[in-house]
Amino acid sequence: MSFSEIPTLDLAWANDAVRRPQLLAQLRHALVDVGFLYVARHGVPEQVVDDMIKVLPALFSLADDEKEAMNLHNSPHFLGYSATGAETTAGQADRREQVEFATELSANWTPGQPVYERLRGPNQWPKAGAVTVPGTDRDVRAVVGAYLEALTALGEHFLQLVAEALALPIDALLPFLSDQHRLKLVRYPGIDDNGATGKLQGVGPHKDSSGWWTFLLQASPPPIGGLQALNRAGQWIDVPAVPGTFVVNIGQAFEVVTHGVCPATTHRVQVQAGAPERFSVPFFQGVRRDLTKAEALGLRQHFETTFSERFLDAAAPSESAEGRKIDSPFLHGRYDTWGESQLRTKVRSHRDVGRRFYADVYDKYIHDED
């Protein structure tokens, strides 16, 4: 876990009988010892990625009233637009604006169902034709739909490779998946010369709580960067943009399922004063909202047997002191389902939405550490 660089895996090796065992060995190392990796030759069509990269500036160039019309505070599903500073991480406002989308589903929650089922629901979109890929008629709805479809397929393929690398049946991890995956289109504004110096929080230190795995497109070309991962020694390691790749990292639920063998690595984004704007697109592979901790821990015997050294070391610190401070409600909290721990995280990050739609649980989620 005291890694000094992020490994790159060539997923095309999965189709080569000679190289597939090498790929699985590299993947096993990345899963157990790093928690972050790049994937290259991943099979997502170039056109799908290019369209996403090209549509981002147009989306964030919308007028303020057009952004407000799809503001996240209108959505009990936490989908829509958030202005810079609207979301908080590690107790501080994040310096980014973003639009959150998800697999397009209808809202079917009714009183009496678990409150976390309200997370399931439809997207908010700009007006038809308001945001298109420059020079084409492909609008943001089509671009996001194609991207979600492609990343959903990549995620399922990757999860089968992960299972094989961890000596599990190839489909063992698929039943944990949700019917809805989430996507953020993110802009980190450039910092002008208004007196700001040094580095500011783009998004604070955290472990991903919005999905099983995260697949990140760093949509601005190098050297524009800012993403960093925290190793066990407490050192922040740069994760620079590498064209043609996705950055992949482990979410909190996967750490639970693997009994800590595959840890969710703390990471952050810092924005350098004087740097240009930066775009990124994280895709969060969804976890079943009704997944209980008891179900999540059901593979204990396998991981205890196959990775006995990791269990023997369980009493030793598995990360730096800074990493142990990160809020991880499903890992360490009092909530028994993934859905409720995720809802709690979202309410704490978007308190205006929590007060509006979740007043009956708002105080519990906000003050559960008091």
UniProtKB/TrEMBL annotation:
This is Fe2OG dioxygenase domain-containing protein. Pfam families: 2OG-FeII_Oxy (PF03171), DIOX_N (PF14226). Keywords: Iron, Metal-binding, Oxidoreductase. PANTHER family: 2-OXOGLUTARATE (2OG) AND FE(II)-DEPENDENT OXYGENASE SUPERFAMILY PROTEIN-RELATED. Residues 179-287 form the Fe2OG dioxygenase domain. PROSITE patterns: FE2OG_OXY (PS51471). The keyword Metal-binding applies. The lineage of its organism: Eukaryota, Fungi, Dikarya, Ascomycota, Pezizomycotina. SUPFAM superfamilies: Clavaminate synthase-like. Belongs to the iron/ascorbate-dependent oxidoreductase family. InterPro entries: DIOX_N, IPNS-like_FE2OG_OXY, IPNS-like_sf, Iron_ascorbate_oxido_reductase, Oxoglu/Fe-dep_dioxygenase_dom. It comes from the Eukaryota.
